[in-house]
Amino acid sequence: MFKTILFPIDRSRDTQEAVQTVVELVRLCQSKLILLSVQNDQIADPDLAAAIASFLEEAKTAFSAQGIIAETLLRQGKPAFVICDVADELQIDLIVMGCRGTGLTQEGINESVSNRVINLSSCPVLVVP
C-alpha cells in the first residue's frame, strides 16, 4: 500500500513519539523508509549541518537495530516546503510526522509545520499526536 514512507525528523519529543508508528507501518507495508532532516535556510552554519548529518546517521542506526533499512536526506530550506518537495521528487506514498499540538490555536495553525505539510502535500500525511 505505502511503498515509500518519508519520515521528517528532528530532535523533538514529537519525532520520538512517532518512531514506533513509523516502525509498525514500515513493517506492515514492507515499505522503503526515508529519513529527512531540514536545516532551516536562515541558519547556514556548516557545524550545524555536520551535527544534523550525525543525527541522521544515529537515527538510521536506531532503525537498523529494529531491522529496518533507512535512507537519509539532509536538505536546506523552509521545512514544510522542503518536505513536500522531497515527497514529490521521490514519489513518496506517505509522510509520517510528529505534531506539537499547537494547531489548536490560531497562532499554532499559522506556525505548525505539520499543518502546512497537510495543506501542501500531494500525498497522504499521517500526523502522530
Content-based structural category: alpha/beta
CATH architecture classification name? 3-Layer(aba) Sandwich
CATH class category label: Alpha Beta
- Main sheet: strand order: 3-2-1-4-5
Helix content range of the residues, please? 40-55%
Number of helices: 5
Number of domains: 1
The low-confidence runs, each spanning 5 or more residues with pLDDT under 50, are none
What series of H and E elements makes up the topology? EHEHEHEHHE
Strand content: 15-25%
CATH fold node name: Rossmann fold
Mean pLDDT over the residues:
90
InterPro entries: Rossmann-like_a/b/a_fold (IPR014729), Universal_stress_UspA (IPR006015), UspA (IPR006016)
Protein name: Universal stress protein
Family: Belongs to the universal stress protein A family.
Domain UspA: 1-129
Structure description:
By secondary structure, the chain is α/β, with parallel strands linked by helices. The protein has one domain: HUPs (Rossmann fold). Helix content is 48%, strand content 22%. The chain contains 5 helices and 5 strands. The protein has a 5-stranded parallel beta sheet with strand order 3-2-1-4-5, with helices on both faces. Helix 1 links the parallel strand 1 and strand 2. Helix 3 runs parallel beside helix 5. The protein is globular, with a radius of gyration of 14 Å. The two termini are 22 Å apart.
